[in-house]
Amino acid sequence: MKFTKYTPFLFLVFIMQFGMAQQKNIEIKDSGAFGDIDEENFPGASILTRSDQGQVHIYHDGIDMFCDKAIFYGKEDFIEAYGNVNMKQGDTINLTSKYVEYSGKTQLAFASGDVVLTDPQSTITSDTLYFNRVNQESYYKSGGKVVRDSSGTITSRVGRYYMNEKKYRFVDSVKLVNPQYELNTKTLDYYSDNGYAYMYGPSTIVGDSSKIYSERGFYNTTDDTGYFVRNSRIDYDNRVVVGDSIFFDRNRNFASATNNITVTDTINSSIIKGHYAEVYRAKDSVYITKRALAITIQETDSIYMHADTLMITGKADHRITRGFYNGKVYKSDISAKADSIHADHKSGLTQLINLARLNKGDAFSAARKPILWNVDNQMTGDTIHLKSNPKTEKLDSLIVFNNAFLISKDTISEDGYNQISGKRLIGLFDDNNDINEVHILKNAESINYSRNDKDELIGIEKSKSGDIIIYFENKEVVELRKITQFEGKLYTEEDLPKNARKLRGFDWRDDERPKSVEDLFKDDPPYVLPVIKGLAPYKADEEFFGDALIGRINKADKEADARQLNKKDEAPKASRTVPKKFLNKTISTVKKPQLKPGLKLEDEKE
């Protein structure tokens, strides 16, 4: 290319033409019936009024605006629109209001008076609304409402709509009203294309049959499912579910929870705990595992039940608790252990059951025979039923079915045990929940260490009979009565070998006895809570009136001032509706250092 003395001039003309082509000004497509000028009130402006054929039509860079009256400041590329204003951006955005002002330089629109903005998924209504066309964001700060057919109506004091992302951010007094529930929260991020809602801060979702509270949560308004991870709880009709994380499905009346779970039965004064639970409201059932513990709260002494898995079923007036695998019960005066436990809270019957799938000769099965401890007495058998009075909370009786065996350690000798065995055992309790009478039925055998008033050993009695009845007072045996077909002998300690001092089937299992709530878990393997990824914490976005927008506004105001386009007592047009706190702030001009791909600044680390 050959340069001449005209080349710089031609290049400058090209740059100016290119810049003018890039700078798109507001166009008046239809000026209405006539134009007017009022330099005293509207200096430098053209006043346009609708005609009988239609409204004033304004166009700017892909947006059309229609109104009954417009005041157009051509030199400032600024327009004020009055009366039945309608702004359209393709087939995605449609805004109507009583008044709009719009700057072609800043591409910021301000609408007021019955503002309605619609897109294909939702509708915003407010008294005032800002629309930043560069970022495709709208914003209200004095109360607004969003309607989405499938999700309901959302109201808040402050709202912002990110049109490209189809995302709303609602702040302060946020309420979502749906025919099935009402959601209230401090901050809500809502995606209009899929109905996803993210809640931050104290939040509640209240429906006909449930109330959810959480301080960080997610709710799918399309399929009515939710996930909650901070201080979360669900209140059903008569149950309260608390856990580190909770999943909720309204259509299935279902909730599941993970880590540090507590399910409280508000009617029956009972609590179950664990680290994984499923709650089926319609079926009145709760399934809980991972160090599961059921607590029946009583006035004087609560009952604790532990098993690998607990299941609570039935209506509030007839709850049933089932413990599966390695079940244990602890109460200050009684404790028990069995493969499975079945407790009917209405009848007061608790069943300790052995696993039928295991052979009787199996070592594990023998070790797992149901066992009951009361004071110093150990009772075992194939199945044990324990009966209590649901109203008085006192033990009434117990029955040991098949292979009944009662053992109590002799209080003086080092390795002496009082023993009674038979086919069935029936025990009766006094008002202090202590056994005061025991009946051993059929094929009864006994070994008893007889002592005088000075606790001196008289002898060891070993006998057989049809039945045996034992009477207790103050937790001590006061009478042992053999009934029918009695045969027995009182031996001295020297005459009875040690290997003959135990009945067949003897199994002293005091080391398995739970003596505290903590003991219920001593056989369990160590359990490490799984890490819950949860939901990302709240992340503040840049202000709607961010640096870029404020920069354009300041630039437009300075250009107007330089050309003296405003009256002395008149606020600059581009910034007059912008809150003062944003106009006075310092715009950041510091650029972040350029980093190699894959590196992050300290404040950007995940």
Q: In terms of topology, how is this protein built?
A:
Elements: H1 7-22, E1 27-30, E2 34-36, E3 45-49, E4 56-60, E5 63-67, E6 69-73, E7 78-89, E8 93-103, E9 108-118, E10 123-132, E11 137-140, E12 144-148, E13 152-156, E14 158-162, E15 167-178, E16 181-191, E17 196-207, E18 211-220, E19 225-228, E20 232-235, E21 239-243, E22 245-249, E23 254-265, E24 270-280, E25 285-296, E26 303-313, E27 320-331, E28 334-344, E29 349-353, H2 363-367, E30 371-374, E31 377-380, E32 383-388, E33 395-409, E34 417-429, E35 435-451, E36 457-473, E37 476-483, E38 487-491, H3 547-562, H4 580-583
Antiparallel strand pairs: 1-4, 2-3, 3-6, 4-5, 5-7, 6-7, 7-8, 8-9, 9-10, 10-11, 10-12, 11-14, 12-13, 13-15, 14-15, 15-16, 16-17, 17-18, 18-19, 18-20, 19-22, 20-21, 21-23, 22-23, 23-24, 24-25, 25-26, 26-27, 27-28, 28-29, 28-30, 29-32, 30-31, 31-33, 32-33, 33-34, 34-35, 35-36, 36-37, 36-38
